[in-house]
Write a structure and sequence with these properties.
InterPro entries: FecR, FecR_C, FecR_N, Ferrdict_sens_TM. The chain is an alpha+beta fold. The protein is about 35% helix and about 30% strand. Strands 1, 2, 3, 4, 5, 6, 7, 8, 9, 10, 11, 12 and 13 form a 13-stranded mixed beta sheet that branches.
Amino acid sequence: MSDHSVNIKPEIIAEAAEWLVEIQEAPLSAKKQQVFEQWRSQSAAHQLAWQQAIQLQKCLADTPYVIKQQVLDDQGQQKYLSKFLVLVLCCSTLSIAAFYAQQQAIFADYRTAYGEQQKIILEDGTQIILNSKTAIDVQYTTTERNITLRYGEIYITTAKDQTEYHRPFKVLGKYGSIQALGTQFDVEQRKDQTQVAVLEHAVLIKNQHGQQLKLNAGQKIQFNAKQIQMAQSIEPLNYTWRNGLIVADRMSLAQFALAIEKNYGVHVEFSPELEKLIISGTYPTQDLNSLLASLGNAYHLNINHSIFGKKIKLSKID
């Protein structure tokens, strides 16, 4: 099979780009190296995407010494150029829209891949937990504390600003801003809307159309550029993801499958006889195979993976 016959999906190019940047920034740990090898061996498309990334890396190695001295004279510029080369890789393979999507990940201050979570503590003591497949930027100035949510989901526990300026804390999303009013809250950037859930205190939401709403503890809401929907009550178990868990309390299998898809970027199918199956229990999310094994043992299910691991089929054991 020639390279030209292999169809490389945009998400695979994005993953190859992220791996290239990560490997160039620092050596992989043993555990991370194993994850990388599993990713690369998933399919011919994954292998080809990585080959193209390596070829791009070699372009830099072949650059004349004098030019490299001019361009790569400090670590920060090396990191910037490596990211620029990754963008070239993406641009050569993807449409303009897809290229922009990859740029979102590559230039983010913090990012996670599918199946990963990350906890960060900012200079003022604010804690942010990034869910699977999330990217954010942090912009702290003398007058503002802003978090830009490029995509994905974050859980925030804000700290009081100790400076004389009493800087407001805001999350800036695709459709507007969320200002913390001394609080713990969750923000998820979806394709067509932003969802906000408040677990403690309150937030002030303002969309691009200028509409505003104060959202109190125990409430959630969805909004876009022109409309803020009515507030609804939250289900606290939906936010146990921040502890690395899916906690199901009489959850339908369809809902459970969506939680798996969101966390791991896989597609889950199940046979018709399982449509009414109700799931309860606590499932750690650190490892997809362990989660599926626990589910299969608890409900006597067959777990079948597609050849490339991106599709999972659940069926009842006869």
